[in-house]
Amino acid sequence: MLMRLTPTHVERLRAAQRGAGVQKYLIIPDKEGCPTMSSNPSTVHLLSLFSYMHLPPSLQIVSRKFHDLAHDLVSTYGEGPETSAMLRKLVEAKDCAVRQAVITDPGLTADRNVD
After folding, report:
1. Would you say the pTM of this structure is higher than 0.70?
2. Could you tell me which residues come within 8 angstroms of residue 64 by beta carbon, excluding any fewer than 6 positions away?
3. Burial of 25 per CB tally in 10 Å (0-12, 13-18, 19+)
4. How many angstroms separate the CA atoms of 28 and 51, rounded?
């Protein structure tokens, strides 16, 4: 369930999450751009799979498109079983796109430290 938040609520929630080191809630904009909060574990988990800052800059460009689309779709259509299915399939598509980018140009991973 998405719940609208005031700017004060957003700041308090972010501060609490920073203190706990755990993201139990997800803050996303609704259709009008107002911040809303999701506590649905599936939505929080699935949207976390669209993070892209750990990738080298060349692959961030590919992955960010899927990140933005996922957040836009959740903002537009809300949460539910079909949203979870949609996000799972979109994660799979994102992973395929990133792998294909590496296959097409193996040099894309050159600026990443691999342990």
Report:
1. no
2. 52
3. middle
4. 14
Backbone angles phi, psi at 64, to 5 degrees: -60, -35
Q: d(Cα 94, Cα 66) in Å, to the nearest integer?
A: 6
Cα–Cα distance, 63 to 94 (Å, whole number)? 6
Amino acid at 7: P
- At residue 22, the pLDDT reads 47
Nearest by Cα to 94 from 74, 64, 71, 72: 64
Three-point CA angle 19, 14, 30, nearest 5°: 155
Q: How confident is the model over 60-73, as pLDDT tens digits? A: 999 999 999 998 89
Q: What is the strand order of the sheet 35-38 is part of?
A: 2-4, 35-38, 26-29
The amino acid at 23:
Q
